[in-house]
Design a protein that fits this description.
This protein has 275 residues and is mostly helical. It has one domain (3-246). The chain contains 10 helices and no strands. The chain has helices spanning 3-26, 32-51, 56-80, 87-95, 101-128, 137-165, 185-203, 212-223, 227-234, 238-246. α2 runs antiparallel to α3 and α5 (101-128) packs antiparallel against α8 (212-223). The longest helix is centred in the middle third of the chain and has 29 residues, at 137-165. It is globular and about 55 Å long. The two termini are 28 Å apart.
């Protein structure tokens, strides 16, 4: 692997290693969800500094990745800092052998997220390590798609936060606003942003095989840590089953007609929470 790419990988390793140390000392591995967003920012900024590319496309790509990563880190940080450890990591702490807990946590959570982050941010890294052509129609379309995904993710999170802040909604499911169009608007918006960043890499003349990036994040959200985790959490509740029958699982769509009444709650956010 070329030296520049190794340095980008090293920047990711520094973020996750520092987070592991802090989380271990504070007995709260929920901090890794904050590191998830920040690791992308580190990779994008470091690759741009190393490549010093010409043309506006790499700079825009770096800005978009930073905007996504910083917003997500802030959003997750508000939920985790000063709060009890996220239920997923607390369950691991209780169920795993204490003798191997730290080693398993380092490998199965931190190292896994490092590898995933490297694969997902790769189109932007490739864009930043080489000069790009002048701005073009493909770049404009990609930025527009990214903006739509960013607004979808941000609005979905904001709607859920407002819903949860109202004591009258305790124990109910969030099914209004964007949550009436998809059961996971934040995840859909996140995936759309990475498809857009892949499109931006194509507009910069990068290779089509970089499609691995949006495929990895989309498949991970749909089948590994995002959607399945939350769908299992609520499975069996009558209000959830009614909501599930009438609402698209991922891609936003008009609700199916249903005789069921309103329901009510939702989902965490982040790499393994919802990331």
């Amino acid at each position: 692997m070329p030296a520049q790419q190794l340095l980008v990988l090293a920047s990711l390793a520094v973020v996750f290693a520092a987070t592991f140390a802090v989380a271990t000392l504070r007995l709260n591995h929920g901090y890794v969800d904050i590191a998830w967003g920040l690791s992308f920012v580190a990779a994008a900024v470091v690759s741009y500094a190393l490549g010093a590319p010409k043309g506006p496309i790499p700079l825009v790509a770096t800005f978009l990745v930073a905007a996504w990563g910083l917003r997500l880190a802030y959003h997750v940080g508000r939920r985790n800092v000063g709060k009890p450890e996220d239920f997923r990591y607390a369950h691991m702490r209780k169920s795993w052998d204490p003798k191997t807990f730290h080693l398993r946590m380092a490998g199965q959570v931190y190292l896994l997220q490092l590898v995933l982050a490297f694969l997902i941010v790769w189109p932007t890294v490739r864009t930043n390590l080489a000069d790009a052509p002048s701005w073009n129609a493909g770049a404009t379309a990609a930025v527009a798609a990214w903006a739509a995904g960013f607004l979808f993710e941000t609005a979905g999170d904001a709607q859920l936060a407002r819903f949860r802040a109202d004591p009258a909604n305790r124990g109910r499911l969030m099914t209004r606003g964007l949550w009436a169009l998809t059961r996971h608007p934040n995840y859909f918006g996140e995936a759309l942003q990475w498809w857009a960043l892949f499109g931006l890499a194509l507009a910069a003349g990068r290779e089509a095989w970089l499609v691995e990036s949006p495929l990895v994040i989309t498949l991970f959200l749909l089948f590994v840590s995002g959607v399945p985790l939350l769908e299992r959490k609520y499975a069996g509740r009558p209000d959830w089953e009614a909501y599930r029958r009438r609402t698209s699982i991922f891609v936003p769509w008009f609700p199916r007609r249903s005789k069921d009444g309103p329901d009510g709650s939702a989902a965490p956010h982040g790499p393994g929470a919802g990331l």
